[in-house]
Specification:
2 copies of one chain form a homodimer. Chain A is an alpha/beta fold and 256 residues long. Chain A contains 7 helices and 13 strands. Chain A has a 9-stranded mixed beta sheet, sandwiched between helices. A two-stranded antiparallel ribbon of chain A has the order 9-12. The termini of chain A are far apart. Chains A and B meet through helix 2, helix 3, helix 4, helix 5 and strand 8 of A and helix 2, helix 3, helix 4, helix 5 and strand 8 of B.
């Protein structure tokens, strides 16, 4: 029986410490192939590149592990890997480890999660990992153990069709971590506060900044888990239908 | 009582015929403010701009209607509108009319829908409209009537909290349209087929192309509605939790 094939991607770029730790976390579980952006692609959401051509270049920065860097978004990387790099469907796609949280509503903005989402759309069991620490030199040692454990479980148990996992790891020392919780996405949001400035030519410009607002009191949410010392694991799907709203809409008068 | 405030955005850019038709469709329903990208932003998914500053410029191309063009993504446009342009929360956000379908899985890749999604996250009743015709000179006359009817219904009835609408209009003559259907998102996907070419310097590059594959036989889907002459209306939400997968995951051994 051949070893499991594991595709690794991320959104912080192929040289980021997070993806190097993720490769270390899963390389003993199967044959690893890396296809990741050649530059940071944070907050790219589920963007794909249709208006310009993509580059895909082999790189030896991972030694004997096959690795490609791509000029596109995380979703582009997965699409290119499936169509042009891999000779069979991977058994697992792991994305990350992201430098910074992708909990709650951030799943929508996250490039890390869009790589995992694209994998799930392709029918590949997929998971995105994020450490709640934005620093380049964050300590990934515990996050790496989480990545190994969750990846082993997916290889062993599979995932329900059409679902992927969003795993966030609190920025705590290992002995402060209480365990892991299966959660729902908290109903939280960003309150944007654009920082308005004037350039040397006298024209205005804006930097996006914001405050994260969590009004969700539920103790079954990812935000609760993270705030209370647990690794949060949210099963995610790509059927965005609000099924509960269908009866309400069926009462509308939509004569056109 | 003041008139409803209606924010208009899109992803094809502020000069596209689709958004001009949308403005025509809703301008008699309230006070319209337009904040849209200054260039095409198709397939941007839910990307937001964090690594470079944003420009926001007032334009008089819509005559007396307040209009701004923004250098960012559709989601950026909505965030800037809410924080910097509008003096109160809009009563309605309309996005589009997109040149091309955003049915099924395309809701994830669509810039049009990401503007509407960002509105919904802000608590604004929101809808994205798409005409199943990519042409610049597509006939928007019937799509415009759909936009008026759906927008009036939202202003009158509201939308359940946390939901928005994804409305797609078949590329048919008005007398061929059978009506509208409230649908679920079809379980369909793109099978990518990258077109590999060689540049004048001998380096390879790739264009993303693909085939749309719909294996979903359900007659309650948006794809079924569109193929059978109906306008499809899918209620969408931004809780991506796959709630049905939680019991399965709770049986895993996640000792780390």
């Amino acid at each position: 029986m051949s070893k499991p094939l594991i595709l690794v991607s991320n959104d912080d770029g192929i040289t980021a410490p997070g993806i190097r730790n993720l490769v270390d976390a899963v390389k003993h579980l199967g044959e690893v192939v890396i296809v990741a952006p050649d530059s940071p692609q944070s907050a790219m959401g589920h963007a794909v590149t249709i208006s310009k051509p993509l580059r895909l270049e082999k790189t030896d920065i991972y030694g004997e592990i096959t690795a490609y860097q791509c000029s596109g978004t995380p979703a582009d990387c997965v699409k290119l890997a499936v169509d042009k790099v891999l000779h069979r469907k991977p058994d697992l796609l792991v994305s990350g480890i992201n430098h910074g949280s992708n909990s709650s509503i951030n799943v929508l903005y996250s490039g890390t999660m869009s790589a995992a989402m694209e994998g799930a759309i392709e029918g590949i069991p997929a998971v995105g990992f994020s450490l709640c620490n934005f620093a380049y030199d964050a300590d990934f040692s515990f996050a790496k153990k989480v990545a190994t454990s969750v990846s082993s479980n997916i290889l062993k148990n599979g995932l329900p069709q059409g679902t992927l996992l969003n795993v966030n790891i609190p920025n705590l020392k290992e002995d402060e971590i209480k365990g892991s919780k299966i959660c729902r996405q908290a109903n939280a949001k960003w309150k944007e506060e654009f920082d308005e400035r004037t350039d040397p030519n006298g024209r205005n410009y804006f930097w996006l900044t914001g405050k994260f607002i969590n009004n969700d009191k539920g103790e079954d949410t990812d935000e609760w888990a993270l705030a209370n010392g647990y690794v949060s694991i949210v099963p995610v799907h790509f059927d965005l239908t609000a099924h509960h709203a269908i009866p309400f809409l069926n009462e509308w008068d939509l004569t056109i």
